[in-house]
Amino acid sequence: MGNSFYMKMGAIGRSIDYSNYEVPQDEKFKGTSIAGSFGLGNQWQIKNFTLGADWISFSQPISTNITSEQIYDNTTYARQSMDDAQNTYLKSSYFQFVRFYVGASF
What we know:
The chain is α+β, with helices and mostly antiparallel strands. The protein is 15% helix and 65% strand. The chain contains 1 helix and 4 strands; from the N terminus they run βββαβ. It has a 4-stranded antiparallel beta sheet with strand order 1-2-3-4. The chain is elongated and about 55 Å long. The two termini are 27 Å apart.
């Protein structure tokens, strides 16, 4: 769309190792997520260096997998706390605004 403007689509893989030490006993889980992403930004190549800015991007999880989970008891509060953490870090879609980056090729 011009010399430096771009649209990009792709997939993002995440691996999470979460621990909550605010509860009487540790609350932990490990999981992975694959998300589809779309972004808009600008990028400039100056000899071997790359300068870039993603102005806005959106990510939507496609697949999630909890590989291990430790919960301190089976109360409704503890289960809700664990579900909230898993939703926040693995299952929720999100927008990201203004991400700058620098790269080098050789």
